[in-house]
Amino acid sequence: AQSVTQLGSHVSVSEGALVLLRCNYSSSVPPYLFWYVQYPNQGLQLLLKYTSAATLVKGINGFEAEFKKSETSFHLTKPSAHMSDAAEYFCAVSFFGNEKLTFGTGTRLTIIP
Amino acid sequence: GAGVSQSPSNKVTEKGKDVELRCDPISGHTALYWYRQRLGQGLEFLIYFQGNSAPDKSGLPSDRFSAERTGESVSTLTIQRTQQEDSAVYLCASSPTGTGINYGYTFGSGTRLTVV
Q: How close, in Å, is residue B20 to chain A by CA atoms?
């Protein structure tokens, strides 16, 4: 069955350090992949998406993600964390081009000053 | 409007009561989605409207849940005889026709439902 897994419900990094949030999917065909961010008391905001074009995808706020078919992964990275990056991050997948998204359970990112 | 608007932002209800949650999509967006986010969990798909097509109700968890949409505008999610496990944030999203998976979805801020 198709699924998406986010490893680590909580991640803490120091300001200026590398941010790495992990997302793996399970599917027989490459899906469409998304990362969303949710700031406190706000709706989900699209960070970036992979839709079968370039495997390295750049998004807003300095984030990027790389689609690795061999690893069935779509990890989110940012070279240098900023205090404003503190939020909850969700990986989401569309299987077979379906309009319905399957979301991971989310990773809460905390930035340590 | 400029974004997806949901009301109320917070709702506290007694177990067994019915509740209605409202979503105003972005003007011109033909696709509308409802998701549920329970504490510590990911978003669960509930229902999807696309224009005048029959809605995809495959995510509704029980017959206590129903949703309607008038044309390509407002949608209402109704939960009858609420139970404590219905406590969650209910999120609405919209997208232009058939482009959600290509361009992403615009989400509202959600309605936090607490059943006591």
A: 19
